[in-house]
Amino acid sequence: MPAAEKIIHRYFHQLISGCGNPQCSNIYCRSSSSFKYDKTILEDRNQVAAEVIRLSSEYAPLCDDVNLIEENEQKIKINNLTENNLQELISQCEKTNDWNILEKSMEIIFSNRFNLLTSFLKVDFTENISNKSESSPTASATPKSFFIHDPRITLDNDEITLDFDVMKSTMKLLRSYEDQISSTIHKSLDLLLNQLQYELKSKRNEFETDANFFNLFLIIFELPYLSDPLFLFDVARLFYSILTNLSIKAQAKFVRILSKYKTNLDAYVVHVQQYITMHTLRWCDRVGIETNSEELLSSEPGMKEGLNTLRLLFYANLLGGQRDSSEIIDIERKNYEKTERELVERRQRHNDTDSDTEQQQQQRNEQQQSDSENVLVASTSSATPATRIKTRKATSEIEDTDSPYDNALQIKLDLKPNEYRRGQYAFDIFINEYANEKLEIKKEYLNFIQQPTSSIEFSFIYYPFFLSTINKIALLNIESKARMYLQRRSIFVHNIFSSVRLNPVFKINVRRDHLIEDALISLEYQGIEQPEELKKQLFVEFEGEQGHDEGGLSKEFFQLITEQIFSPEYAMFMTNEETRCLWFNPSAAEDLDREYTLIGMLFGLAIYNSIILDIQFPPILYRKLLGKFGTFEDLATSHPTSYKSLKSLLAFNEKDEGMTVEDAFSLTFQVAITDAIGSQLLFDLKDGGDTISVTNANREEFVQLYSDLLLNKSIQRQFDPFFHGFLLVTHDSSLRKLFRADEIDLLVAGSHVLDFNQLALAAEYDGGYSKDSPTIKNFWTVLMTFTDEQKRKFLRFTTGSDRTPIGGLARLKLIISRNGPDTDRLPTAHTCFNALLLPDYSSIEKLQEKLSIAIDNAEGFGLR
């Protein structure tokens, strides 16, 4: 250890632990009864570090007993850690049954930056650094100036001096003696990290460019103690704070190192998740005691450091995962930008074609609205300051450059999470279910949008990868409802002061026998030409029928229209017999752009209004809705037979099989695709494809072009208007930033898993029923004996959809109300409230009969 650093180390030990001599007279030693400091100073290690620097510069007295540390160093003769010297230490301790030497050795290593950073070095760096250390100046008053620089190690590359394999095997051995050294490691790291945090304030650049600096974080992450409750609230928090307060350039290098060297990333995630869980528990205990507490989970001290560290690990997981080629990514980005431009231009063309009269009327309306807002401002001028704070934009209204879902580190790494098919590990390991259960997402969101960006220290909104799908959906719904509320409030104010009445809801009036036609007219007129209408709450009326849409009529509208428009009669889609999934019909009529746009809008409106559609598409559709292209890998779930055939083509070995690819497969670059009516459509993958044989040399090109044809080119004419309709609704939302493709699938179509035990456990009863009522017991007995098809009909009858929402059937909260005594009337339902009105039938046989009739004849508001 350099002389200056030894002095610093001794002063730290003297102030924090003392020399151990109860008769000590040194006023600068904690063991002395004349200790000159208020001992509360020891609670702030930054103050301790500052005082240590001052004492060393003034040559304050050092206790002789403290020199025992240096004597131990000389006795043990260990300056860094290797697997060999650790084995020797353990062997020595086992022989003498005295573990003090191991404890002292770990204290020497883990409390000293230089000793720890020069442990586990690669062979080709050891000699270089050894030479540098011998020639380095040691006259400095502090160890801050002792840094190792090597031209091979920079912030711009991913090189490090650490030998991962040696480090991991040594740490594995060290974990076997956890009980003997846990408290020593805790005390030593506390000392080391506090000193490091203080020094980083003035010498961050020197530290970050030190050739060995990143070794420290990788070594500490391998320690099992980070998940130990003894470490979680001080050492772990300090460690995560130091790591996430490095420069963006340094954090980016750390992420790249983790992804490149395939570290034990899942173990690191476990450390951080344990940290987050324990801080969540502490928050629960505190707010549970303070019954009137309004504190959010995001206000828990230390939570920010945990989430920031988890984000580093998430990015490393992405970089270590799989994404499409750079060429495909570039094309996708350009294509999505083009689509967005076309969307904006279409809206602009509509604005440009407005008549002068309409423009003048709009100006008058804007003036009236401005006047009305002025009136409102004047009327609230006496409000308290807190009620007049100007809120920031909702997340969905923020430009990409200011999006809460992007950050400087993500931009530095050029990371777009949805461009990755999978990570090194499953994305679910980054979701802390316990914290998500305790997270009050509505309050977090409102707290987020009510503050200027500059004043927000921490919010869970910044970490979509951490949020459960349920919380993401809740966040999207809150966003949607906030926008709907703003629309309704604006219209309310407008209607007070204007003779032109505006509708506060997006109202659709349809006839059951002209459903598609009426829906097209409504959506084109109010939606495409006036896209702001789509931000309002959907309100459906069936012509000639009574009923106020509280959600049930909207659900029925979506159910009926999807049944019709996806039917074979329209031939817009076809069903894959193997997967039972829908796909675009490549030979659909050329005049169906309006219908495809309508379906895209329905997808968006269903998400926006939290309605599940009774449809099933392969996963690639939802990737395409995020701006992705289909590739060979996507065929596994969309066209499994074709995928298996192409995979066998790629795996074919001419030498082993004794024949060529041409002879074995007899393929050319002209292929046939089957359409909705079973006809074969011929396509040339290349000019003159019918004359180009598929060979061993060009088979990869064939697979790529054929996959592109099946999933992209053959259906581009159908998919483009569909995608455009979807973007008309979702363009301004946070959908693409919040959700993965598989989550959008659940948003649109729900889950196919039916667990009616969940439904029963969460059910509520009204009107005299309870879970112990005989009719209720009969009801659940009947329901549990239903087939899956009958169960789906029951769900559609009571909720308007036969799919399970994300989170399971328990989230439906079925309400069963007593609807009078025994009768011959059928059960009825209010789908908007998930309410079943069940008469008190006299027998289980009668209940089964009446319920079966009701669910088999559920269409139409008159019955429901």
Automatic annotation (TrEMBL):
Gene3D superfamilies: Hect, E3 ligase catalytic domain, Hect, E3 ligase catalytic domains, Ubiquitin-protein ligase E3A, N-terminal zinc-binding domain (AZUL). Its EC number is 2.3.2.26. InterPro entries: AZUL, AZUL_sf, E3A/B/C-like, HECT_dom, Hect_E3_ubiquitin_ligase. Residues 358-374 have a biased composition (Low complexity). It is an enzyme of class 2 (transferase). The keyword Transferase applies. Pfam families: AZUL, HECT. It catalyses: S-ubiquitinyl-[E2 ubiquitin-conjugating enzyme]-L-cysteine + [acceptor protein]-L-lysine = [E2 ubiquitin-conjugating enzyme]-L-cysteine + N(6)-ubiquitinyl-[acceptor protein]-L-lysine. Residues 342-382 are annotated as: Disordered. It comes from Rotaria socialis. Residues 342-353 have a biased composition (Basic and acidic residues). This is HECT-type E3 ubiquitin transferase. It comes from the Eukaryota. Signal peptide: none annotated. GO terms for biological process: protein polyubiquitination. One of its GO terms (molecular function) is ubiquitin protein ligase activity. Residues 530-864 form the HECT domain. The active site is at C832 (glycyl thioester intermediate). PANTHER family: HECT-TYPE E3 UBIQUITIN TRANSFERASE (PTHR45700:SF9), UBIQUITIN-PROTEIN LIGASE E3C (PTHR45700). The keyword Transmembrane helix does not apply. Keywords: Transferase, Ubl conjugation pathway.
